[in-house]
Amino acid sequence: MAVATQTFADRLAAEVERKRSQLVVGLDPNVDLMPVELRGDVARFCCGLVDAVAPHAVAVKPQLAFFETLGPAGMAAFDQVCAYARRAGLLVIAAGERGDIGSTARAYCEAYLEGDLPRAHALTVNPYLGRESVEPYLAAARRHGAGIFVLVKTSNAGADVQDVVLKDGRPMWHHVASLVAEWGADLVGDGGLSAVGAVVGATHPRAVADARRLMPQAIMLLPGVGAQGGSVSDLVRAFQSGPASALVNASRSVNYAYRESGGDYREAAGAEAARLKREIWAASGW
Amino acid sequence: MAVATQTFADRLAAEVERKRSQLVVGLDPNVDLMPVELRGDVARFCCGLVDAVAPHAVAVKPQLAFFETLGPAGMAAFDQVCAYARRAGLLVIAAGERGDIGSTARAYCEAYLEGDLPRAHALTVNPYLGRESVEPYLAAARRHGAGIFVLVKTSNAGADVQDVVLKDGRPMWHHVASLVAEWGADLVGDGGLSAVGAVVGATHPRAVADARRLMPQAIMLLPGVGAQGGSVSDLVRAFQSGPASALVNASRSVNYAYRESGGDYREAAGAEAARLKREIWAASGW
Predict the structure, then answer these.
(1) Residue B231: its pLDDT value, please?
(2) Whole-angstrom Cα distance, residue A23 to residue A18?
(3) Close Cβ partners of A132 (under 8 Å, ≥ 6 residues apart)
(4) How confident is the model at residue B157 (pLDDT cuts 50, 70, 90)?
(5) Cβ separation of A104 and B75 shorter than 8 Å?
(6) Which chain A positions have a beta carbon within 8 Å of B69's beta carbon?
(7) What HEC string does A54-88 produce?
(8) Is the CB of A277 inside 8 Å of chain B's CB atoms?
């Protein structure tokens, strides 16, 4: 018998409505930027951030690289932070930027999205290996209500690959966007949004509008606001498919807000998250 | 003062000549395929493989996904296996298939290629995020003699992205191959090979020949022989830039050779690695 699992998109949409927030806070524990007294305890630093942002954000996005740097202890911290965030009622988007095939992709799925208590609700995925590399995640979306965010147009330059012009005149990333729409077409929840989302850099406002048109049912995850220079007011087009059809990701500007404002890092992070949440909600036009 | 570090390519070439081998053994610890008595001890299973293949292979390529699946204990096993392989005189290529930018890419570099005793000598990297995402690895190649292998044409289908036709008539992966040649141009060692290599699936013999032409100084890492159906005899063109200009990767067919042959898994892996090494050396024409 099939288990009736809520789709990732519907679950997210419910949280967006409840909190009136489209904010995702990235967790990038960079030891050099943390308060000195916490440098030995990445898990404690991140759990402090989770407490601070939980009322304001719908999800956290821990960046695996920063935890892997710290070896097995870092991975233990990653697990601890994911569990803590889930208990705090936040969705967890693991940022791994993986792209693998066959048994390797299945291993990643298992590691992050499956099992009795999956570490994360969604994962970021690199598209270079094509549909075959995404299949295991689509299966996890079907069976476990997981979500993925495919890297489509990243917030960095990346133009040497993503903007290459195809025979039909489109840039490469438009092609990837149409693949994302195709991959997600039969994973659309009750609210009209798909379990297959897309990462589109907030640093390219025009690309955001193109992306919305090419992927009308995809949840867009928009990094690049704040430290990377993207502006929230440029993002209104992203929200055309509903209040939960785009999420704005801020990492450094929240994690290390205390370095600008002074004071306790949690208070500073909470204040910045609250401010961003309001600014984004207003800009989204909902 | 600059530290005179041997380049990855020169170090690899010396090992290739010494062992008369171009074999890389992937370490894909899949608990379902391992001998029953070792299922609880992935590190022991992999270290057994290292002992068995060390006389025949120049490098091992542990696949991070399989270790991550096991959580923090898996990452501890990963570290243990990398250290064990280094002590056995093998080069270590960490298969992470990462593609990240800025501080995240730097974190991965730090995690795998830097520090007093780097876990790995080289890393696999996804090109979708363009030159900016590769920069930190190029810096690690310059400073620490590290290497990278950029995914160019993977052994799976992947055609929906990699074979898309560009405005100038070339497939996408040809463009990526020319970027690889460009990124690696000023990182060429004394032997004429670059620290920036390329992953090209052995399942596409014609692509291997094209790849050699497009990237004359890149070390090609060729997966897909054995379990995935690629044939060693089709790969001679890959070796046109010298005996160390291509490496053939075999994972499952070596790791789980005992399932075909019976007997001890280490003996079976050693015998299969020895057989492959001879077959590849003969096919390489050196």
Answers:
(1) 84
(2) 13
(3) A101, A102, B156, B157, B158
(4) low
(5) no
(6) 107-108, 110-111
(7) CCCCCEEEEEHHHHHCCHHHHHHHHHHHHHHHHHC
(8) no
Residues from chain A that touch B101, judged by Cβ atoms under 8 A, are 154-156, 158
Other beta carbons within 10 Å of B170 = 16
Q: What is the ipTM of this complex?
A: 0.92
* Contact call for A161 and B154, based on CB within 8 A: no
Of chain A, the end-to-end C-alpha distance in Å amounts to: 39
CB under 8 Å to A12, separation ≥6 — which residues? A58, A59, A91, A147, A193, A219, A244, A247
Q: What is the pLDDT of residues B91-145, one digit of tens each?
A: 999 998 777 777 788 888 888 888 777 889 999 999 999 998 899 999 999 999 9
Does the structure show a pLDDT above 70 at A51? yes
- B186 pLDDT higher than 90: yes
CB-CB neighbors (< 8 A) of B179 in chain A: 160-161
Query: Residue B14 carries which side chain, given as an amino acid letter?
Result: A
Mean pLDDT of A215-238: 88
For CA atoms A207, A212, A213, A215, the dihedral sign is positive
Contacts of residue A65 in chain B, CB cutoff 8 Å? 98, 100, 104-105, 107-108, 111
B178 to chain A, any CB pair closer than 8 A? The answer is no
Cβ–Cβ pairs < 8 A, chains A and B = 181
Distance of CA A35 to the CA centre of its chain: 25
> Nearest 5°: CA angle at A78, between A128 and B104?
45
Place of tokens 């965030």: A85
Here the tokens at position A87 are: 């208990």
Query: Using CA atoms, how far apart are residues B39 and B44, in angstroms rounded to an integer?
Result: 9
pLDDT in tens, B23-80: 999 999 998 999 999 998 999 999 999 999 999 999 999 999 899 888 889 999 999 9
Give chain A positions within 8 Å (CB) of B176: 161
**A66 — contact with chain B (CB < 8 Å)?**
yes
With CA atoms as reference, the chain B residue closest to A108 would be B65
pLDDT digits (tens, 9 = 90+) for B264-285: 999 999 999 999 999 999 999 8
Q: Which residue has the tokens 């990094």?
A: A223
CB contact under 8 A, A97 and B99: yes
Q: Which two tokens stand for residue B27?
A: 């370490």
Tokens of B15: 């090992």
Weakest-pLDDT range from A207-211, A266-270, B101-105: B101-105
pTM more than 0.90: yes
| In the block, residue with structure tokens 């299966």 | A139
3-state SS assignment for residue A176: helix
Rounded to a whole number, what is the distance in Å from the CA of B285 to chain A's nearest CA?
A: 31
Inform me whether the pLDDT recorded for A252 exceeds 60: yes
Q: How far apart are CA B235 and CA B222, in angstroms?
A: 9
Residue B234 to residue B206: CA distance in whole angstroms: 9
Give B115's contacts in chain A (Cβ within 8 Å): none
CA A44 vs. chain centroid, Å, equals 22
| N-term to C-term CA, chain B | 38
Compute CA distances A14 → A6, A17, A241, A277, whole Å.
11, 5, 15, 16
